[in-house]
Design a protein that fits this description.
single chain; 161 residues; alpha+beta; 2 domains; two-stranded antiparallel sheet; 4 helices; elongated
Length: 161
Amino acid sequence: MFAGLAGVDALEDQLADLPANMRGRLEAKARSLAAALVAKVRDEKLSGEVIQTRTGALKASISADISLAGDGLTAAIGSFGDVKYAAIQEYGGRTSVHEIVPGKAQALAFLVGGSLRFARRVAHPGSTIPPHPYLQSSLDDSRDEIVAELASVATEAWDNR
């Protein structure tokens, strides 16, 4: 292509290797950034900053999924478990009228006016849950750092070609 210029063959070889080199670096950086984002969600947002921890099920369900397809790389951070309330906590919403029944006992126990009461079932009128964005707020907090870190990968790959 550039016949006659000194060092062109070596430069063409370096440029040909650049996409594979950058892909590997981007994948490593994406894994590192995703792990940091998961830690932020678990250790900050779900440890009292946005939502108080009760059982730890939501916190334990947060993980990252990195996938490579063709020339693309996708990092998804979310609740990857059977935590039915994960979405309503993030986005808010309304629960429908439903019946509450005991799961592991023969009766429900609760306090009413200081007195302990028991019931085999309770009719719940439904609830309006306000949004508690633990995922989106973590991404928003980290967006500038993520963009800068990914851009630095391209710069480093070019500088080290």
